[in-house]
Amino acid sequence: MPQPHEIKTTVTSALAEHPYLHDYAPQVTAASVLSDALAAFGFASDGTTRYYLFHDGHEVPPEATAGELAGHARALHLKLRTETTNG
């Protein structure tokens, strides 16, 4: 059985100097991509900032997979967004 293609994933953030680039298997969840991107950017949760991914004008649910988001494409561009909450 042929292996599904990996999806060339790019995550950009206005707070980062360079995008995060990585190839993901289609079954990898958005939560995993977010975690990897945060680590690559050196961002840590401070309790007042919520980080989430944005794609095609919508917030990406953590359980969504790279394959679902990319559809038939072999590349995926996500934006890292932040939301500050007052405690």
Characterization of this structure:
There is one protein chain. The protein has 87 residues and is of the alpha+beta class. The protein has helices at 30-41, 66-70; strands at residues 7-12, 20-24, 49-55, 58-59, 75-84. The chain has a five-stranded mixed beta sheet with strand order 2-1-5-3-4. A hairpin with a 2-residue loop joins strand 3 and strand 4 (58-59). It is globular. The model has no long low-confidence stretch (mean pLDDT 92).
Summed up, what is this model?
With 87 residues, the chain is of the alpha+beta class. It has helices at residues 30-41, 66-70, and strands spanning 7-12, 20-24, 49-55, 58-59, 75-84. It is globular.
The run of helices and strands is: EEHEEHE
Mean pLDDT: 92
Count of helices? 2
Question: Biggest sheet, open or closed, and with what strands and sense?
Answer: 5 strands, mixed
Unreliable parts: none
Oligomerization category of the chains in this entry: single chain
The percent range for strand residues is 25-35%
**In terms of structural class, how would the helical and strand content be classed?**
alpha+beta
Helix content: 10-25%
Strand order of the largest sheet: 2-1-5-3-4
Shape: globular
Q: Roughly how many Å apart are the termini?
A: 51 Å
User: How many DSSP-defined strands?
Assistant: 5
Radius of gyration over C-alpha positions, nearest whole angstrom: 13 Å
